[in-house]
């Protein structure tokens, strides 16, 4: 039997960037095939070629042994390939049925097509356990169910081969488990699944085979059963990496940041954070676990002074922060620094040269220039020094901020904040879009800061990261803090329940 | 992931605009052919009239002075992410500021009166721009809409004032009495004459030097100062500004104040340098040309100076052309200017993409 998908010697360049170099991939029918690689390794490019977003410069695509040309997503759908994107392509104001019909309405009048969709959805629900309320408005569904709609859409269009791009990034652990169950039943029914992810745990849990990409090349394809996370990590990075940073037990010191009954309302009047209270002590990392969008971002921004809290107060080193001084500028002066969640929207200015991004938030510091004029030579020299310390590549202070890879951008932001000797450091998603080699470096830095007595509040959607770094873990769900655990006394299932809002009292 | 459109600086600032201008002239040439005239003769008259004679050059540089100021005004606001369409109204109000200062302080000597007149222009222009800036910052009223409305307000306000308040009682013209003579900014031919150099007389005056100094100051402000840094952060990434503790509202008002003050330079050149009285419609729509100048100059002072020179050539040469070849009317010249704006502004991306394509290809070929 010929493989479901065969990619032969695929090449693709964007300008001077060779995103895919002679890539070969063979995916057997009825298997779950994982593709791993660091950011920029070429995974997404390769899948975009398979799904018809890009055309390869050279190379051949075979589906079920037949060479075909895929020039657009329509060609891919025709060939039985479906894709579930990381960012859903759904119309939130339409119902499930309407979303599934979109682009396949079947004629000018909707009624005929709709009947067909309903019948087909009922069949899919029966065959794969894809139960869903077909008349629900998509915007009202949970993220996990929205993803299910995406999968239904692909199956409705006759997909035999399903590509999922980082599908668990937005899911709670129980939702991820449900997804994996679904993928297994798809496999049993003979469907082929390609899973793109950077989470090695998921690869190990669900795939049959795994292909590793590095710098545009396919470096290995392995049987999952005969490999291990350290081996995969080494293949991805090209050198040995530590997946877990060691840290010594430490007794935390005096309270540095005390948050009392903080509530945040966003611009649309929606309550984002409800009555959050907690303390971060010196020499302690407090992690906030939660699925993206449950108020963690707003909590960080409120503490940093970026958005006025509706209610509540915070104390720094024991003294209350008055609402008139609760702004980012003053908080920095008080020693509360902030590595923001979203590098490109907040952490730096993509259009600026790196040395200008490296003073974001500090451009008023007297020593950075003479009077109103900034001393560029000095800024460049300062950053060059930091780039060496933080191993930023390329070490080019004049290069545009957007030209650095995610990991190197993050190092520039971290260097800016850490080198100013914070007392309290807020850290949001420190390793999102950061490659494994840099993750190790960033984790070490954070642990070193903690050991030096800094109080760190860490927000991350990567549960591994939270569990690995934190001394104490808070979980958030729907804007509320739903639980608190010592990192040493909890596990993924426990946190998963709390993140889903199933609190101790309710249980 | 899209194909990278980052060009080397020289291509971005010189090559692409140059290609735009050449393409614009080719298309304009076709228009000239279409009305049955010879485009080569037309080009010759255009250049001859603007650069070929000392007098023509003087007029070209006079217009250039106007365009530098309004171009800088648009650019400063643009760096803060604001589209200031109100240069026309701000310059008009600046004219009022000049008239009030000069005609009320006639007893002062020139070395005091001239700077005060310039300050009056800057202050009135700034104040007129500050209101839309404030409305944008505090109320979210879109600056494009409000500045356009403020152009109309300025224009009717000045008509009312000139007809009913500021007009000399015995005069029928809606204009103020002449400014005191010591407030005239010296003509360039007078300055040269003082050094014994004979140059043909024109409207060109020392305001050109002020314009070039303003261009340098804007460069220093935008690219080197802390304030300019904050302005660019707000314009380029407003969320990052909030993160950094820079208030976008405050920067919006400041950028508009600076922008309005720069637009006031147009009034300084036209009124203190040439007309020597406040009169109706002295801005002649140049406030709008500033938008094209800033676009074409990529909001960089050097680019703005070059673009201003081009538009100076177009205005002065165009006037000569209309005179020498009556079939090509003033309106035709406006059409040609419009084509250049179209190519330099709206179609800029067209050539940018092509140039990027050719350059990366060459780079790959060399590898």
From TrEMBL, chain A:
Membrane topology summary: Peripheral membrane protein
Record flagged with keyword Membrane: yes
Main location: membrane
InterPro entries: AAA+_ATPase, ABC_carbohydrate_import_ATPase, ABC_transporter-like_ATP-bd, ABC_transporter-like_CS, P-loop_NTPase
Keyword annotations from UniProtKB, A to Z: ATP-binding, Cell membrane, Membrane, Nucleotide-binding, Repeat, Sugar transport, Translocase, Transport
Family recorded in the similarity comment: Belongs to the ABC transporter superfamily.
Protein name per UniProt: ABC transporter ATP-binding protein
TrEMBL record, chain B:
Family annotation (InterPro entries): ABC_transp_permease
Any Pfam family hit: BPD_transp_2
Key words, A-Z: Cell membrane, Membrane, Transmembrane, Transmembrane helix
Residue runs in coiled coils: none
Principal cellular location given in the protein's record: membrane
Compartments reported by the entry: Cell membrane
GO molecular function: transmembrane transporter activity
Transmembrane segments: 14-35, 56-78, 110-131, 143-163, 204-222, 252-274, 286-313, 333-351
GO cellular component: plasma membrane
Membrane-topology annotation of the record: Multi-pass membrane protein
Protein name in the entry: ABC transporter permease
Organism of this sequence: Microvirga aerilata
């Amino acid at each position: 039997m010929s493989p479901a998908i065969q990619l032969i010697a695929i090449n693709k360049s964007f300008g001077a960037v060779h995103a895919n170099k002679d890539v070969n991939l063979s995916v057997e029918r009825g298997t779950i095939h994982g593709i791993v690689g660091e950011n920029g390794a070429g995974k997404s490019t390769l899948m975009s070629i398979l799904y018809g977003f890009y055309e390869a410069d050279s190379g051949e695509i075979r589906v079920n042994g037949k060479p075909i040309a895929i020039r657009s997503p329509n060609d891919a759908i025709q060939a039985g390939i479906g894709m579930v994107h990381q960012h859903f392509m759904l119309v939130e104001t339409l119902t499930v049925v309407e979303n599934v019909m979109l682009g396949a309405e079947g004629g000018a009048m909707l009624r005929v097509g709709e009947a067909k969709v309903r019948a087909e959805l009922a069949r899919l629900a029966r065959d794969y356990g894809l139960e869903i309320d077909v008349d629900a408005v998509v915007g009202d569904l949970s993220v996990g169910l929205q993803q299910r709609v995406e999968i239904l859409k692909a199956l409705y269009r006759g997909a035999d081969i399903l590509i999922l791009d980082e599908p668990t990034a937005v899911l709670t652990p129980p939702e991820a488990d449900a997804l994996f169950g679904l993928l297994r039943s798809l496999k049993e029914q003979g469907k082929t699944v390609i899973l793109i992810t950077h989470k090695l745990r998921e690869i190990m849990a669900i795939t049959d085979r795994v292909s590793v990409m590095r710098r545009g090349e396919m470096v290995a394809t392995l049987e999952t059963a005969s490999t291990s996370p350290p081996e995969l990590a080494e293949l991805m990075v090209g050198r040995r990496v530590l997946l877990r940073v060691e840290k010594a037990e430490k007794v935390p010191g005096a309270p540095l940041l005390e948050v009392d009954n903080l509530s945040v309302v966003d611009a649309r009047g929606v309550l984002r954070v409800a009555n959050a209270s907690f303390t971060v002590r010196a020499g302690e990392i407090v992690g906030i676990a939660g699925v993206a969008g449950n108020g963690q971002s707003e909590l960080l921004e409120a503490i940093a002074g970026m958005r006025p809290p509706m209610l509540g107060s915070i104390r720094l080193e024991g003294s209350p922060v008055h609402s008139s001084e609760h702004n980012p500028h003053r908080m920095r002066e008080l020693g509360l620094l902030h590595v923001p969640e979203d590098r490109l929207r907040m952490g730096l200015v993509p259009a600026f040269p790196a040395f200008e991004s490296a003073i974001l938030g500090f451009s008023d510091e007297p020593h950075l220039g003479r009077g109103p004029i900034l001393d560029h030579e000095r800024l460049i020299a300062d950053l060059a020094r930091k780039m060496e310390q933080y191993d930023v590549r390329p070490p080019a202070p004049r290069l545009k901020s957007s030209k650095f890879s995610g990991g190197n951008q993050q190092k520039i932001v971290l260097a800016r904040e850490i080198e100013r000797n914070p007392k309290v450091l807020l850290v949001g998603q420190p390793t999102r879009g950061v490659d494994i080699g840099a993750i190790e470096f960033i984790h070490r830095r954070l642990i070193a800061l903690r050991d030096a007595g800094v109080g760190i509040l860490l927000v991350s959607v990567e549960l591994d990261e939270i569990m690995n770094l934190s001394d104490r873990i808070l979980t958030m769900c729907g804007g509320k803090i739903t639980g608190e655990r010592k990192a040493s006394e909890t596990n993924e299932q426990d946190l998963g329940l709390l993140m889903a809002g199933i609190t101790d009292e309710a249980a | 992931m899209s194909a990278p459109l980052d060009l080397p600086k020289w291509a971005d600032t010189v090559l692409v605009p140059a290609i735009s201008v050449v393409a614009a002239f080719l298309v304009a040439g076709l228009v000239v052919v279409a009305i049955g005239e010879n485009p080569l003769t037309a080009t010759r008259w255009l250049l001859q009239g603007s650069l070929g004679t000392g007098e023509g050059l003087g007029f070209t540089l006079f217009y250039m002075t106007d365009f530098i100021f309004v171009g800088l005004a648009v650019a400063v606001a643009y760096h803060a992410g604001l589209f200031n369409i109100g240069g026309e109204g701000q310059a008009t109000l600046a004219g009022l500021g000049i008239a009030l200062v000069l005609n009320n302080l006639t007893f002062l000597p020139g070395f005091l009166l001239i700077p005060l007149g310039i300050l009056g222009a800057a202050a009135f222009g700034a104040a007129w721009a500050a209101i839309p800036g404030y409305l944008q910052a505090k109320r979210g009223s879109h600056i494009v809409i409000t500045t356009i409305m403020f152009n109309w307000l300025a224009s009717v306000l000045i008509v009312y004032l000139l007809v009913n308040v500021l007009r000399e009682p015995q005069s029928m013209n809606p204009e103020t009495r002449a400014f005191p003579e010591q407030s005239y900014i010296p003509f360039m031919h007078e300055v040269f004459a003082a050094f014994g150099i004979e140059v043909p007389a024109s409207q060109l005056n020392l305001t050109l030097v002020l314009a070039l100094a303003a261009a340098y100051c804007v460069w220093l402000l935008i690219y080197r100062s802390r304030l300019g840094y904050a302005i660019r952060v707000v314009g380029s990434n407003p969320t990052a500004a909030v993160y950094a503790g820079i208030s976008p509202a405050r920067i919006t008002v400041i950028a508009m104040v600076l922008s309005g003050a720069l637009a006031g330079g147009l009034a300084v050149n036209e009124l203190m340098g040439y007309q020597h009285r406040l009169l109706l419609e002295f801005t002649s729509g140049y406030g709008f040309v500033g938008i094209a100048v800033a676009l074409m100059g990529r909001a960089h002072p050097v680019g703005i100076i070059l673009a201003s020179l081009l538009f100076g050539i177009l205005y002065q040469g165009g006037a000569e052309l209309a005179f020498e070849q009556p079939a090509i009317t003033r309106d035709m010249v406006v059409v040609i200017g419009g084509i250049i704006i179209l190519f330099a502004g709206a179609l800029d991306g067209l050539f940018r993409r092509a140039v990027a394509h050719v350059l990366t290809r060459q780079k790959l070929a060399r590898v």
